[in-house]
Amino acid sequence: MTTTRQPSDNPLPADAPLARELLDGLAEAVLTTDETGRVTLLNAMAAQLLPEITVGTELSRCPVAAVAHAVTTDADRFDADHHGRRLRGARRQLAGPRFAWYVRDVTEEHDRADALRAERSRTAFLAEAGSQLGMSLHRDQVLLSTTTLAVPHLADAAVVLPRPVAPAEPHARWTRYADGEPAPTDGLAPLTLTSTVPVLAEALAGDLADPIPCRATELTDLAAMLPPGFGSPGTVLVCPMPGTDGSAGVLLLIRRTGRPGFERREIELAREFVARAGAALATADLHDEQAHLARVLQASLLPPELPTVPGVTVAGGYRAAGDTLRIGGDFYEVFPHSRGALFALGDVCGRGVSAAVLTGRVRQCLQTLRLVEQRPLELIRLLNRALFDAPDAARRSQFTTLLLGSLDRGPDGVDVRIAGGGHPSPLLVTTDGSVTPVPVGGTAVGALTTARFAETRVHLDPGDVLLAYTDGVTEAHGPRDAEMFGEARLHAALASAAGQPPAALIDRVLRAVDEWLDGQAHDDIAMLAIRASVPA
């Protein structure tokens, strides 16, 4: 006969050696309560993590607030700090109105999660800082971005003291942003701030490498740079901003009294932040310097304001090939003299800055050579020789197509002598609307030491216009089938503007070219129109 064993209605006694050994070997705390809510069993880990609770303790009134609150509110879980440890508890109902609580020490797990969140926050902050600072190419914008990024992530207020641009500048300029301010503010710091505080002087001089925490009382006149109502400053982190050739400035991170000081990880984060800010400030300074040089270069290379020449009316038109500096390889010049004037219109091979450099050289040579020679053919020969005498002529391998002409007033109009160096023929536009090329010929200037140049003559009756232009006009490509603007369209545009002043004629051609391009890129364009004056 087989007997089936029924499970016992009585649990294993709590003081049974095996049960005690199993419970005490668990890595989590275990405690049970009876139907009255009093503790009936504690294992070794429970005694270690919750020493305030003993057998017989009424759990709803125990000294561990998180546990008591969970029992009182009939919650199945709690998560709380206790004796410097992070504890997480879960409740499970046993037979009858009895419960078991399982409590784990999750301090390390919690610390790892906190560290991960902190690292993600740190990475996100540095990424945002790098993005904003990287887009700031102007010095003032970098200073504003530096202060606004630092608050409130690193401090309650941030003040940037950039290295003075001029060594003899008497006061340190500052830019400040504080929590609650609508926008950053700037001003001049008292002279004593940097002269009497060694740590600031060292940071601005580049002798300080790492951020240094200071008490606000150590920084003389700091309150003068803080907004009204800011309160009492507590800890200040002095952060040197590294630049390309030493210090780019100093960032002061200021926390109010009562806020904790700067921890090691916060100081490391500040170091990485000011490294980015310093690099951005150095880049902005370099950009400002290059922009200044570009403006100077642009002013020297842009076509000049045309002079007044008795007996003729002149006008010019210029478009660079999509260059933001508006400089390129096309140019024109007019040089008045006692009998009339010299004029030049040229096209340096290439585009952009490299072409502009040669353009400047050609124009400077013409400025000098026309003082000793005013005959067009002889002048263009001297220019060719001067370009080859330049030290880097062999390496440059650049050349210029050019028209050089002289204007001589007469009783019945203007006599024009034109020397050519491989440039498109100028066009004679008469008052009746006819457009006739004036062949010149010749080879490019600066291409060969044995270059041959040609000269021709043309007479302008009163009202006639001579137009010199570069190939950027005729070779402008339309957007549809890449067909060029061409000479026929140029002639038609000139014929439609016959009899008008030179400026109106050039404007008509430029509008026709723009319509043809329809927003497409184009080569450099230059035009010079010369009209024999009509007697009053």
From TrEMBL:
<dbReference type="InterPro" id="IPR036457">
    <property type="entry name" value="PPM-type-like_dom_sf"/>
</dbReference>
<dbReference type="InterPro" id="IPR052016">
    <property type="entry name" value="Bact_Sigma-Reg"/>
</dbReference>
<protein>
    <submittedName>
        <fullName>Stage II sporulation protein E</fullName>
    </submittedName>
</protein>
<dbReference type="Pfam" id="PF07228">
    <property type="entry name" value="SpoIIE"/>
</dbReference>
<dbReference type="InterPro" id="IPR001932">
    <property type="entry name" value="PPM-type_phosphatase-like_dom"/>
</dbReference>
<keyword id="KW-0378">Hydrolase</keyword>
<feature type="domain" description="PPM-type phosphatase">
    <location>
        <begin position="309"/>
        <end position="532"/>
    </location>
</feature>
<dbReference type="InterPro" id="IPR029016">
    <property type="entry name" value="GAF-like_dom_sf"/>
</dbReference>
<dbReference type="GO" id="GO:0016791">
    <property type="term" value="F:phosphatase activity"/>
</dbReference>
